[in-house]
Specification:
33% helix; binds magnesium ion; alpha+beta; 617 residues; binds guanosine-5'-diphosphate
């Protein structure tokens, strides 16, 4: 078995294509269905009559979810590079290509989707643009197929091409030590913990004893499944679900590895690294990074043997990680900056387990570290550190910066100050414990507010806000819309909550773009005896699954369609009047006016008298 992956910009039809090829909708979560957008990895089984089969990994295309795309990308061998014929090459088309350049794709097929929306001339132009964008990459020269999942045109031809490409792929190394990066963890009632992933190499057998890391424990495989079928043995290249009894699912996360018990976990890896051209301004001798290994994201520092590399040349370096992990020699990895999250480059793991290269500290470094340790979680500005450690302020700032780079201190901003690394770590852990409890008690919430957290931890809120900002910046926690949460947390509604909103914000097939009334929704929401309903409503609004416009509530999918019609109409016929907008959307003036104002306010359109045009991006 081999793994087929999708890649490409959001809304280009990746998930619709997977559904057309397999009959399985890869968008698993209700939030994904309400928003009409993939947030996390989706999986489907592709089968052919002659017994050839493959696992498909469908990735989110939105730039905010590149970390989820990366979690599924390492296992891909056959890539479906999806480009919508009516939009052409867009930013995440290129970003996904740049990322995959460092990973394990062996064959690429370009899929030009939505062919029903363009004529032959436009299709040929997009095909040329994609050929240009892939030139010089692993995908150069890939055959292109035009398909429409609406009319079904081209889907059979594409299926045949995928079949032939799968048959021609070389097998994975079945004799190598088994290595399975974990991309999903769940508990199955009556069976216990299940981990899933793409088996990168080796063979797994039911009954094997393997290393699961983290937590760094040996586990016995009770059973193995491949797309719902029980197997006694599975060879590299397959999508695997493994039952690992005796481990609590809540102790495991995406990014763990299930591997041959002879592997050794290490926090320092020798690597061969090649930067992308855009990485130059970010590279230092010690560059803080987010490292993507297997299905995991681990913060760390990339330290170059001979200073940062010049243009796109591969060099030797050591990757120091915040936690230990297991990796195999030759494993591909990718690194991004901490914030913003810019692709720096990638390469392969040389050997695992090298000596850690602790620098011997000068006396003034020790003095600053001691001052920080004495103050614990009370932040000290560079001037205070200098005065208390008897070093010049500029030198104190330099030392604090160096301590921060290697995790021995934590930098806060507004105003700039530093905390002791160990004290910061302890506070991080207390925060993580609160998140874990609250996210399991109320999974429909986006997270925890700084106020609630400050009360629970009895920590001063202004300090906590600065600390949380640094945690977000370092990618240790997520923060959006005033809520903080663990990185892995995605709000999920309960079936009752979901049913409530599907009913109250229903789409009328006769008037599919007319909103539900906010007043009637609130009138039903208050007396409904459903746990957490108002919070679930907040979640849907904050995530864009539902959108309040004037007195109406729209589904995110309706707003997307309205916007599409608005943009199409303006592109085709020029600046738009209220009456033309109303007709394009098929709504009434009562709804059209607030919608138009909402598009002005959110920066989609600009108003000039009675006319609106598109804001230039
Ligand atoms: N007209 C047309 N629309 C399509 C086609 N494929 C997908 N779509 C629509 O494009 C939107 C985005 O599709 P989706 O598969 O979610 O895109 P993804 O973000 O790349 O996974 C949805 O509204 C689909 O119904 C197609 O072949 N033709
Ligand atoms: Mg999708």
């Amino acid at each position: 078995m081999h793994v087929v992956g999708t890649a490409g910009h959001v809304d280009h039809g990746k998930s619709a294509l997977v559904r057309a090829l397999t009959g399985t909708d890869p968008d698993r979560w209700i939030e994904e269905k309400l928003r009409g957008m993939t947030l996390d990895l989706g999986f489907a089984h592709l089968r052919f009559d002659d017994g050839v089969d493959a696992g498909i990994v469908d990735v989110p295309g939105h730039e905010r979810f590149v970390h989820n795309m990366l979690a599924g990308a390492a296992g891909m061998e056959l890539l479906l590079l999806v480009v919508a014929a009516n939009e052409g090459v867009r930013p995440q088309t290129l970003e996904h290509l740049a990322i995959l350049d460092f990973l394990n794709v062996r064959r690429t097929i370009v899929v030009l989707t939505k062919s029903d929306l363009v004529d032959d001339g436009a299709l040929a132009q997009v095909a040329r643009d994609v050929a240009g964008a892939t030139r010089g990459t692993f995908a150069e020269g890939a055959a292109a197929f035009a398909v429409s999942t609406v009319t079904g045109d081209g889907v059979e031809e594409l299926r045949r091409a995928i079949h032939d490409a799968l048959v021609a792929l070389p097998p994975r190394a079945h004799d190598a030590p088994a290595f399975l990066p974990v991309d999903r963890v769940f508990a199955l009632p009556g069976h216990g913990t299940i981990v899933t992933g793409t088996l990168m190499q080796g063979t797994l057998r039911a009954g094997d004893t393997l290393l699961l890391d983290p937590p760094g424990r040996e586990v016995r495989l009770r059973s193995l499944h491949v797309f719902g079928e029980s197997r006694t043995a599975v060879a590299g290249g397959a999508r695997v679900a493994a039952n690992v009894p005796g481990v609590d699912a809540s102790d495991l996360h995406r990014g763990a590895v299930l591997a041959d018990a002879t592997f050794v976990s290490s926090a320092s890896l020798r690597v061969r690294f090649r930067p992308v051209r855009e990485a130059q301004p970010w590279l230092r001798r010690r560059t803080p990074v987010r490292a993507y290994l297997g299905a995991g994201e681990i913060l760390g520092t990339l330290v170059f043997d001979d200073g940062p590399p010049a243009l796109s040349v591969a060099v030797d370096a050591t990757l120091h990680l915040r936690r230990t992990t297991i990796a195999y020699a030759g494993e591909a990895f990718v690194v991004r900056t901490l914030s913003p999250k810019v692709l720096l480059g990638g390469g392969t793991i040389g050997s695992a387990a090298v000596e850690s290269t602790a620098e011997s500290d000068a006396p003034d470094v020790d003095a600053v570290a001691r001052v920080l340790a004495a103050w614990g979680t009370v932040p000290r500005a560079a001037a205070e550190l200098g005065a208390e450690a008897n070093v010049r302020e500029e030198r104190a700032a330099e030392i604090a910066g160096a301590l921060t780079a290697r995790g021995a201190a934590r930098a806060l901003h507004k105003p700039d100050a530093y905390l002791d690394g160990a004290a910061a770590e302890a506070l991080s852990e207390r925060i993580a414990a609160v998140f874990a409890r609250r996210e399991s008690e109320a999974p429909w919430m986006l997270g925890t507010t700084s106020l609630a957290l400050a009360r629970e931890l009895t920590v001063d809120e202004p300090l906590l806000i600065r600390f949380l900002a640094s945690e977000v910046e370092e990618g240790r926690i997520a923060g959006r819309a005033g809520y903080y949460s663990s990185i892995a947390h995605e709000a999920r509604l309960t079936p009752e909550q979901r049913e409530f909103f599907e009913r109250t914000v229903a789409v009328d097939p006769e008037q599919p773009l007319v909103p539900a009334s906010l007043d009637s929704l609130l009138a039903e929401l208050r007396p409904a005896r459903i746990t957490g309903l108002p919070q679930a409503f907040d979640t849907l609004l904050a995530s864009g699954a539902l959108v309040k416009v004037g007195a109406g509530v729209y589904r995110g999918t309706q707003i997307a369609e309205i916007r599409r019609r608005l943009e199409t109409s303006i592109r085709r016929d020029g600046p738009i009047t209220m009456a033309r907008f109303r007709d394009a959307v098929g709504t009434t003036r009562r709804h059209a006016v607030p919608l138009m104002e909402w598009f002005d306010a959110t920066g989609v359109t600009v108003r000039d008298g009675d006319l609106r045009s598109l804001r230039q991006r």
